[in-house]
Amino acid sequence: MRRAPGWIRLAGIALELTALAYIGYVVMGREGKRPRYLGHPEPVPGEVEAIPADDTDAPADDAGARESGMEPMEFLKESADEDARFYRALDETGEVLAGFYADGRVRLADTRHRLAGMLQSGCADLLEIDNNQWSQLFVRTTPTGRMQLELRGGPYDARVLTCETLK
Question: Is the pTM of this model over 0.70?
Answer without folding.
Answer: no
